[in-house]
Design brief:
5 strands; about 10% helix
Amino acid sequence: MEAGEDSMERIQYDIGDVVKMKKQHPCGSDLWEITRTGIDFGLKCKGCGRFVMIPRPKFEKAVKLIVEKNTEPFKPDPLGY
């Protein structure tokens, strides 16, 4: 599934999806796990574990493709963490 296409419909990103970005992280990995969605995206580097927040427009331009789609429904933490 190509993520950078210009189309009328928006690609659905879910928590737990693994995406490949156009540019590499300084650790050398270009794979990121989505930990938060909304106005901003929370991403965890699959190489070094670094956590970053990226605004949605910047994220959508930087994503190359979805490598692994999360099939399990999201279950929020009962403590809110």
